[in-house]
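Per your request, structure below.
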């Protein structure tokens, strides 16, 4: 296996860490060669709260993936999440000098630079710049204006801005585990790579990535990103509701949610019951499964209500022809898709990583959507021309390269 053709995706989540190793074979086809999954410790709502525990969890997932792939890795693409991330749209306009002439690559880059020139707080930095469409002399909907004739060039973009300290802590955790961050990708964008079809991206779709600590949103239309958001609520909140409401340990509450939970209590037969362990070593007790469902449904309705409100505020209510795609570990909750259809008032499906050579049955699971999507995103750079790279995304490596360099410089000084 050639080292320079390996792509590694690392999803550092609140409740689990996934690592996926991909490889581009001689014909340029991407195949998955290994994956690893470990419980996440040291993370809360997508943010590092205990560096050493996060490092240990990352190592466990990566080592499992390396063992299955029969190789070692040193660089990774990392999913970025957390309520500190904010999305906004911007627009840049430039006038081409002289009479009507061909649009050059430099013109496009200048228009993008104008679009990204927005006021950002001192502790924030731009993580993504995602072109949406170009307008040349009033002609809208242009995907690639290179070589076209005109005098006035406009570009619409979606910007993702995040906290510098939060990102630095994530990079530090990965670096301390012996890996280098080559790039970070917003988690909902990474997941969309593996669960959406081209038609969905073109016609309009909402991606709802339900993780343990956060729910990440992304709206696609005309094959571009028009809205992103991170909501500070996820599957872990349902687990805690069960633990408190049923007076049961968190571990048992999570198991009950996965094995017996339902997001629509009316779907559960009245006569069904579950055995609920109690805290303090007391005997377990029987409980109606409908009561379990009622607790789950209340929090699920709240999360989906936040999704609906965000969509309305962003102005996309009733505009997404393809509906919504639920993914992430929280999407596996029985009845959640049906509840989402009621609350969001649109078609809803559960998104699984699409077929790639090497994907096992274990990995055809929404839990792996981000990690697989990161590998697919990373593979694009091998087939990307200088021109197409402009339209994919800016390289957030500028910030992360500086962060890594600062860390290495500090470590070098300490060791001298």
């Amino acid at each position: 296996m050639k080292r320079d053709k390996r792509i590694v995706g690392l999803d550092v989540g609140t409740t689990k860490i996934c690592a996926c190793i991909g490889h581009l074979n001689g014909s340029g086809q991407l195949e998955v060669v290994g994956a690893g999954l470990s419980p996440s410790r040291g993370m809360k709502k997508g943010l590092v709260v205990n560096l050493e525990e996060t490092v240990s969890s990352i190592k466990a997932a990566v080592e499992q993936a390396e063992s299955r792939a029969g190789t070692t890795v040193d660089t990774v693409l990392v999913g970025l999440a957390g309520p500190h991330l904010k999305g906004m749209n911007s627009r840049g306009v430039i006038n081409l000098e002289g009479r009507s002439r061909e649009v050059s690559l430099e013109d496009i880059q200048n228009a993008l630079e104008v679009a990204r020139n927005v006021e950002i707080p001192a502790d924030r930095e731009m993580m993504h710049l995602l072109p949406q469409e170009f307008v040349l002399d009033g002609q809208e909907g242009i995907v690639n204006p290179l070589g076209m004739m005109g005098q006035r060039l406009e570009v619409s973009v979606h910007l993702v801005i995040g906290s510098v300290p939060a990102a630095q802590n994530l990079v530090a955790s990965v670096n301390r585990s012996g890996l280098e961050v080559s790039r970070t990708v917003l988690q909902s964008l990474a997941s969309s790579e593996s669960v959406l079809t081209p038609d969905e991206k073109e016609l309009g779709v909402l991606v709802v990535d339900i993780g343990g600590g956060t729910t990440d949103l992304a709206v696609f239309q005309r094959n571009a990103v028009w809205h992103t958001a991170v909501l500070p609520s996820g599957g872990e909140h349902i687990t805690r509701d069960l633990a408190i409401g049923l007076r049961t340990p968190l571990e048992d509450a999570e198991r009950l949610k996965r094995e017996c939970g339902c997001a629509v209590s009316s779907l559960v037969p009245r006569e069904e019951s579950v055995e609920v362990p109690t805290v303090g070593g007391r005997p377990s007790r029987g409980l109606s499964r409908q009561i379990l469902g009622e607790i789950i449904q209340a929090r699920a309705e709240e999360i989906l209500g936040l999704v609906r409100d965000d969509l309305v505020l962003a102005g996309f209510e009733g505009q997404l022809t393809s509906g919504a795609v639920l993914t992430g570990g929280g999407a596996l909750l029985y009845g959640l898709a049906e509840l989402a259809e009621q609350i969001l008032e649109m078609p809803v499906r559960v998104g699984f990583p699409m077929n790639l050579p090497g994907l096992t049955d274990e990995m055809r699971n929404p839990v792996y959507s981000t990690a697989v999507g990161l590998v697919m995103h990373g593979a694009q750079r091998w087939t990307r021309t200088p021109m197409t790279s402009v339209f994919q995304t800016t390289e957030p490596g500028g910030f992360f390269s500086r962060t890594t360099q600062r860390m290495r410089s500090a470590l070098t000084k300490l060791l001298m």
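The first helix runs from residue 51 to 69.

Regards,
D.
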